[in-house]
Design goal:
By secondary structure, the protein is α+β, with helices and mostly antiparallel strands. It has a domain of about 130 residues: RNA polymerase II/Efflux pump adaptor protein, barrel-sandwich hybrid domain (OB fold (Dihydrolipoamide Acetyltransferase, E2P), Beta Barrel). It is built from four helices and eight strands.
Length: about 220
Amino acid sequence: MIRRLFFAVILLLCVGGGLAGIKYLQISKMIAQSQATVMPPATVSTAEVRAATWESMLPAVGSVTAVQGITVSAELAGKIVRIGFESGDTVRAGMVLVAQDISEEQARVRALEASEHLAQITVQRLKLLVVQHSAAVADYDQALAEHKQIVAEIEALNALIAKKSIRAPFDGTLGLRQVSLGQNLESADPIVTLQQLDAMYVDFSLPQQQAVLVQPGYTVRI
């Protein structure tokens, strides 16, 4: 019994040693192969060094506003008899945008001009009579004052007529038309917006850590 056990132990030792030897040979072969493997050379490329300007961009959200912009409105009440623009038109300073009815004012001017002509004749006649001592100086002064008053009334009416031709105060681009032909305008009624787009304000905000990087003269791209 002991003899059989002895031979069994010897057999197991031989088998284990054989397996260990085989495994050792396999590992040795793998190590040898890895050492024999040659790594391919690294790929290297070259480029010419050139100077370039690097721009730092700070994106932001803002709004664009015209430097000069108004709502053109009526200064006096009156009926629209002519509209000289369309929505979106580009206009020059002094261009008539809306003409109001001035027929009544023109009739009054014609009547005053007739009165002014007669008053001027009266002044000239009284001036001659005063020189001839045939009229009182007071009469001449009264006629002269009446003549000046008529002239002033004519000038006031002409100024009123001019205000009823509503003009563009500066060059610019018009917005949407807010009036129609034949409409009766009241004082301060809006007619159209006018924006001068040659120069613009850009309003935007930046975080504090970025705001310190902005300097006068930097370019803003919209």
